[in-house]
Amino acid sequence: MELRALGTQGLHVSAEGLGCMGMSAFYGATDETESLATIARALELGVTMLDTAEGYGPFHNERLIGKALAGRNREDVVIATKTGVEFDDDGTLHGFNGSPEYIHRAADRSLRHLGTDHIDLYYLHRIDPDVPVEESMGAMSELVAAGKIRYVGVSEAAAATIRRAHAVHPLTAVQTEYSLFERGIEGDGVRATLDELGIGLVAYSPLGRGFLSGAITSPDQFAADDFRRTDPRFQGENFASNLAVVDAVRRLAEEKSVTPSQLALAWVLHQGAVAIPGTKRRRYLEENVAATGITITEQDIAEIEAVAPRGVASGDRYSADLMQSLNG
Ligand SMILES: NC(=O)c1ccc[n+]([C@@H]2O[C@H](COP(=O)([O-])OP(=O)(O)OC[C@H]3O[C@@H](n4cnc5c(N)ncnc54)[C@H](OP(=O)(O)O)[C@@H]3O)[C@@H](O)[C@H]2O)c1
What we know:
The protein is of the alpha/beta class and 328 residues long. It is 38% helix and 16% strand. It has eleven helices and twelve strands. It has helices at residues 32-44, 60-69, 100-114, 133-145, 159-168, 190-197, 236-255, 260-270, 282-290, 298-307, 320-324, and strands spanning 3-6, 11-14, 18-19, 49-51, 78-83, 85-87, 93-96, 119-124, 149-155, 173-177, 200-204, 274-275. Strand 4 (49-51), helix 2 (60-69) and strand 5 (78-83) form a beta-alpha-beta unit. Helix 3 crosses helix 4. The radius of gyration is 19 Å and the shape is globular. The protein starts with a strand and ends with a helix. Bound molecules: NADP nicotinamide-adenine-dinucleotide phosphate (NAP). The site of NADP nicotinamide-adenine-dinucleotide phosphate has 28 residues, from helix 9.
């Protein structure tokens, strides 16, 4: 698989990473055996970056990755994990905490759970409104100096925040939601800031949390505790109108003899982002990895644009309280 420079600080990763979140949380039932097999298959297919966070589980996902990587050559894998949402050691959630004290404590805990002596890419998962981002980044910089982390990123940060963070320690990547269903960064200055400062873009939920795969035809498919039951895009009239967009994407995909997931991923990759589609099964992984071999022409882009222009998805991407917690 193609390796891409992620940002300009020296990190190189596969064009597609593997989003591991669903193996532990948010998207219904999990299966550890299939999850471990999926991670192994991803590495075999040339995926080098595994995306996790201490909050996925909490801790279960980092431990799973630790298990998957045991006995492997550590330098073959880029582990990307996240801090800044506070959990006690027993998993009790306290909310955002971007204080240097917490970041140091959480980093040591993540290293333990991952079974490694360094994290390749460490993100501030959310910006703590009560802690100046300069203080959080100061801790990240100390972690780099201590050799505990190699590269620094932030997730879901506004353009001005990215600038402030980058001034303290050069950012390698910003992780944010980006897909045919979510193109906010094209209009709010984030994308332009990343390009100006030489910071890489890591696109999370590149399949619109699975919607763009075409496999979701009713919200009733979701388990009772599936996060998407609270996601406005999967509710009521929004669901119906978003499904119509997916149907149009599917028709374009069929004309190219690819699947809707593959077309959606190829579009994200064409925008210069590193995509981290999430799956907990080998079958989807293999389909998604094959998207890296698809050539997207300018005509394809125009046809996609015609059925899925910026802002096409109906409904906010998070519930009202979670929308409020995003750095704006
Ligand atoms: N920074 C942040 O705040 C943040 C937020 C959300 C996610 N993330 C990261 O981004 C990663 C990806 O995002 P995501 O998992 O939310 O959304 P996504 O990649 O857009 O979609 C994942 C969903 O799509 C399904 N899927 C994947 N490939 C498929 C295929 N080929 N055909 C049919 N269905 C398919 C998965 O099913 P199965 O699960 O059944 O395999 C899962 O339900 C996460 O794993 C996580 O690491 C970060």
